[in-house]
Amino acid sequence: MSVEDWLIGELKEKKGLSDDKIDTMIKEKQNQFPSLNREAAIRMIATQNGITPIKRNFKINEITEESSHINVSGRVKRKFEPRAIKIKGREGRVMNLNLEDETGNINLVVWDEKVIDYINSGVSEGDEVSIANAYSKKNKLTGSLELHVGSGTAISVTNKSSNRQENIKYDKIKDITEENKIYHLKGFIARLFTNDIYLVRCTECNKKVNVTCDVHGDKFLSKTLLITGIIDDGVSSMKISFFDKTAEKLLSLSKSNTIEEKLNDLSFGLYQVEIAATARKFNDVFSLTARDIKPLTYNMDKI
Ligand SMILES: [Zn+2]
What we know:
There is one protein chain. By secondary structure, this protein is α+β, with helices and mostly antiparallel strands. The chain has six helices and 14 strands. The protein has three domains: 3-48, no CATH class; 60-159, CATH 2.40.50.140; 173-295, CATH 2.40.50.140. The longest helix has 14 residues, at 19-32. The two termini are 23 Å apart. The relative contact order is 0.12. Residues 202, 204-205, 213, 215-216, 220 line the site of zinc ion (ZN).
């Protein structure tokens, strides 16, 4: 099932929208943003309707056609040595793995040098791994589907085959249990709440105000960026806030021109990032305050 079909299914099921209604919404979006392709428009509509545009936990036998944004977990059945190959005239490497779960197995093709290095040193046969944002492609020779791991794909070991030294580089959102602790995460910006992105304060009262301060009017107002959204590591998600400089850094990930366009672009669930964030707890619910954000290159069409 393609991501498009899946998202349309979600919109029908969760929002009660008809095919006609969804078609109309897609056309409206594309009129509004002429550069959007159909899939991007559907992602945007899904996001705006509260649906995280990432299908979690594909089972291997559910990968039945070429599609992108595949999240899957499984056990590394075989790990092969990287091979040197020529890609578009340049020397590169490719590495193959075979991944299995209870429904079947699939060959993994790893193109990204950094991911190859990570797998070489940190992943062994028998390890359970979680893969986010891979894409499936037909092997031209065999005709069977393979899962491609590029620079936009996240792969992490969730369970070592032996309990020797664990090589965990990132924290998992589901393991966030300590208030005020800094966690290092790798994931996707699954959604940004784009309607209200400024925090207005009266510096004299040191309080948040709506438009002006009841006491000081607009004399001591300071306006800083405060962008909230959802970060998703492929297994679970959490609300995250970006203040001021970190919010600017977040916006700078997008090459779009205006803040509005940047926010829309970043809301698609297409940006993979590394984040350092402090865990906050409010009414027993955890959320994150970002302290730093770095892009992880998202480039599906490199090969
Ligand atoms: Zn005041």
